[in-house]
Amino acid sequence: MPSTQSEYVTLISNDGFEFIILREAACVAGTIKRMLDPASNFAEASSGVCRFGQFNGLIIEKLTEYLYYNLKHRDSKDVPDMDIPPALCLELLVAADYFDV
User: Fold this and answer.
1) 0.85 exceeded by the pTM?
2) Could you report the average pLDDT of every consecutive run of 10 residues in the chain (101 residues)?
3) Nearest residue to 4 via CA among 47, 34, 64, 49
4) CA neighbor of 91 nearest in space, from 66, 64, 67, 56
């Protein structure tokens, strides 16, 4: 049976915010890529919905910004730094480790 995966996936934060993003962008994050892999047999692979109970909407929003930023600049040289608020640095570092980015 051919795959009927949607071009988009939904990331849901622990405070209920939903981010609908391109599957290609979401798969920049190794963790999400593995969750969405049909061979993984994870529920997320068939539903296209990933819930992250340990991260709030602000962190998932910054993650999605980074995923698109990475996708946009993947073949570029001398890429400018992404703007990251200092108050979020520690939480984003934890999220980056979790999401494998």
Assistant:
1) yes
2) 76 98 97 96 95 97 96 90 92 96 94
3) 47
4) 56
